[in-house]
Every structure is written in structure tokens, then in C-alpha cells.
Write a structure and sequence with these properties.
The chain is of the alpha/beta class. The protein has a single domain, classed as Rossmann fold. The protein is 33% helix and 28% strand. α3 packs parallel to α5. The protein is globular, with a radius of gyration of 17 Å. The two termini are 21 Å apart.
Length: 227
């Protein structure tokens, strides 16, 4: 089942002589349960694309359809609710709430969504799956980088989103922890039939994904299948 459509999307910043064409006529599709890597050099437009898909930035042209909803047509409050219910984020710097323990960080997207019942059994299962159950009462500052990124992954999965957007999720991790987190991403992709789009500059990591998309100078080049 198709979860994501990006149709002829362009993004421009500035005007006249300061005009920057960050993305140029990008189109792509993603199926449910697919793990896609987006690779490119710094400044190529890959993070801009992720931000547009996540509703964190506004496109200049085109449309982005997630679960049959064109997010470009949503008002700001509607978009905030849609994003909370349908998109999970994993960032390079983890972006955890320092005043919340592990359990509450993971449950946060669900508890913010008023009227949405918190499935504690599901949250417990996520924490056990990611080896965090015994750390559930700890705070982010008490965890290693790899553990914090596992918490971020569990949080992204907590609202059972249509899609998870991971922006350089292993960028702050050592090589051993990078392998561990990549393994968990793949495992969660398969176990939860979860669609993941991961931005990375690491071609070796990208090769472990189902499909690799290359962006250079705001243009999507031909994709190739990963391992």
C-alpha cells in the first residue's frame, strides 16, 4: 500500500539575486513497510525534502500526500494535529525532553494528542523491544547517546505513524552504536510494517536499506535498490 506521494515538489528561498532553488521538481513514492535512504552531499537538499514531508517547512510548488491527505492544503493547526498523529521524527541530536523520564518521553506524542488513549501495553512492548524497559524511569542525561537514540526511536513509533523521518539518526554515534541503531531501525521497519525515510551522507548505511535515493543540487537522481 502506498503511504507517501511526493509530486513535482519544489522549494525556493529568498528573492531575485538572493533566490535559492533548494529543491527542483522532486517526485517519489513510498510503500508501507519500506525503508528508504536519501543520500547526498551537504547542502544537496535532502534535509529540506525531509522537512517538507514532515510538514516542518512549506513547499513552493507541488503536493505531498500522506495517507491520502495533501498536507499542503492543511491549515497550521490541522497540520500540527496531522503531524502528531501520522509522522514520527528521529533527529541526530535526539531532541528528548530533559525534564521527562524515558517512559514519559516515549509516550509524549500520544499524551499531547488530547482524546487519544495511551496504549500502555504497546508502549511497554516498544520499550522492551528496544531494550529500554529497565531504563524507563531514567532521565535523558543518565543515558548514553545510543540509549537516547533508542528512546527517540521508541517515541517516533509510539503513535503508530504512517511514516518515520530520520535525519542523520546515527550522526552523533560511534561506529559500534551506529550498527546497533541501524539494526533496530531495520528491525522496527519489519516488525511494525513501518515506513522509514532516512537521510544520511553514509553510502554504506544507505546500502542496508530497501531503496536508495540520491539528491544533488536539489535534483533527485535515479534511485537504486539497496541490500
Amino acid at each position: 500500500m502506498e503511504v507517501l506521494q511526493v509530486n513535482n515538489v519544489s522549494k525556493r528561498y529568498g528573492e531575485k539575486e538572493k533566490l535559492v532553488n533548494a529543491l527542483k521538481n522532486i517526485s517519489l513514492r513510498a510503500e508501507q513497510g519500506e525503508f528508504i535512504a536519501i543520500v547526498g552531499t551537504s547542502g544537496s537538499g535532502k534535509t529540506t525534502l525531509l522537512n517538507l514531508i514532515g510538514g516542518l517547512d512549506i513547499l513552493s510548488e507541488g503536493e505531498i500526500i500522506i495517507r491520502k491527505h495533501n498536507i499542503a492544503g492543511l491549515k497550521r493547526k490541522e497540520l500540527a494535529v496531522f503531524r502528531r498523529r501520522n509522522i514520527g521524527f528521529v533527529f541526530q541530536n535526539y531532541s528528548l525532553m530533559p525534564v521527562l523520564n524515558v517512559y514519559d518521553n516515549v509516550a509524549l506524542p500520544v499524551t499531547l494528542d488530547k482524546g487519544k488513549y495511551v496504549d500502555h501495553t504497546y508502549i511497554e512492548g516498544l520499550l522492551k523491544e528496544l531494550g529500554l524497559w529497565d531504563k524507563r524511569m531514567r532521565f535523558p542525561y543518565e543515558l548514553s547517546g545510543g540509549q537516547q537514540q533508542r528512546v527517540a526511536l521508541a517515541r517516533a513509533l509510539s503513535n503508530k505513524p504512517a511514516i518515520i523521518l530520520a535525519d542523520e539518526p546515527t550522526g552523533n554515534l560511534d561506529s559500534r552504536t551506529t550498527v546497533e541503531v541501524m539494526g533496530l531501525l531495520k528491525k522496527c521497519c519489519k516488525k511494525y510494517n513501518q515506513t522509514i525515510l532516512m537521510v544520511t551522507h553514509n553510502e554504506i548505511l544507505a546500502g542496508n536499506c530497501d531503496r536508495v535515493l540520491h539528491i544533488e543540487d536539489g535534483v533527485l537522481l535515479a534511485g537504486k535498490e539497496g541490500a
